[in-house]
Design brief:
The chain is mainly alpha-helical and 247 residues long. It has one domain (9-243). 78% of the residues lie in helices and 0% in strands. It is globular.
C-alpha cells in the first residue's frame, strides 16, 4: 500500500480518536485564522439545507407510503422510523454532495490553513490562482461523485425490491459513512499529493476509524441546523485526524 509508513494506522483505526478529532474540528470553527475560510461554506450550506428540509417535509409521507408494501402494513409502526431516518439521511446527504461541490475550493483552503495553524508548516505551496484552484478541486469532487453514483445504482435497486429492501437501510448507513469519510479526508490528503485511488487505499487500512468518522459526520448532516456547521468542522477534523496520526 502506498504511503503506509506515513501514518500510525492503529491510531487512525480508533473510533475514540475519530470522535476526538471531529470534536476538535467543531471547536476550531471560530478560530480567527480559519474563520474566513468557514463563512462562505456556511452560507452555501444554509441555503441548500433549507431547501433539503422543505423537500423532505413535502415528500416524506408519500415516499414512505410508496416504499412500504401493503403486506408489511402490520410492521408499519417499526418500518416508518427506520425508513424515515434513511430517507432524511439520504436527502440531506444528497444536498451535502451539491454543497461540497460548490464549496470544495474553500474546503481545500480550509484544510491547508488548518495544517498551517496546527503545525506551522505548509503541506504544499499555496495555490495563488483562484480559478485554477477551483477547477482542480471541483474536478476532484466530480470524480468522487462519480464513485458514489456507480454504487448508488445497485443500492437504489435493492431499496425497491420487496423483502430485500429490509436490509437496504443498513447498507445505506454503512455506505454513506464510508463515502462521507472519503469526502472529507480527501482535502487534507490531496494537500500532500495523494490522489483518490491512494486516498481510498489509506482509508481501507483503517476501516473502523474511517467508518466511525464518517458515521459521526453522517449523523450531524442528518440533524437540521447542526448540518450547516458539520461540513466545515468535518474538514478541520479530518485534517487533525491525519496530522496527529502522522509518524
Amino acid at each position: 500500500m502506498p504511503n503506509s509508513d506515513r501514518y500510525d494506522f492503529k491510531k487512525l483505526n480508533s473510533p475514540v480518536y475519530a470522535v476526538r478529532c471531529l470534536a476538535r474540528g467543531v471547536g476550531l470553527l471560530r478560530h480567527p485564522q480559519l474563520r474566513k475560510f468557514v463563512l462562505i461554506p456556511l452560507a452555501i450550506n444554509f441555503f441548500l439545507f433549507a431547501g433539503a428540509f422543505a423537500l423532505t417535509s413535502y415528500f416524506f409521507a408519500d415516499f414512505l407510503g410508496w416504499l412500504i408494501p401493503a403486506w408489511l402494513d402490520w410492521l408499519r409502526w417499526l418500518l416508518w422510523p427506520l425508513f424515515g431516518t434513511i430517507f432524511i439521511l439520504i436527502t440531506f446527504f444528497s444536498f451535502t454532495l451539491v454543497a461540497n461541490l460548490l464549496a470544495s475550493p474553500f474546503y481545500d483552503k480550509l484544510a491547508w490553513q488548518t495544517e498551517v495553524l496546527l503545525t506551522g508548516d505548509e503541506p504544499r505551496p499555496a495555490e495563488t490562482r483562484l480559478f485554477k484552484a477551483m477547477a482542480r478541486e471541483m474536478t476532484a469532487e466530480l470524480r468522487r461523485l462519480g464513485y458514489f453514483i456507480v454504487r448508488l445504482i445497485p443500492l437504489g435497486l435493492l431499496s425497491v425490491i420487496p423483502g430485500l429492501n429490509l436490509i437496504a437501510p443498513f447498507l445505506w448507513l454503512i455506505f454513506n459513512a464510508w463515502f462521507l469519510a472519503l469526502e472529507y479526508t480527501a482535502y487534507p490528503l490531496a494537500n500532500h499529493g495523494l490522489l483518490f485511488p491512494e486516498q481510498r487505499q489509506i482509508l481501507a487500512q483503517a476501516r473502523l476509524g474511517t467508518l466511525s468518522l464518517g458515521g459521526l459526520i453522517m449523523l450531524g448532516v442528518g440533524v437540521p441546523l447542526l448540518n450547516i456547521l458539520i461540513p466545515p468542522a468535518a474538514v478541520i477534523g479530518a485534517t487533525i485526524y491525519f496530522i496527529d496520526a502522522r509518524r
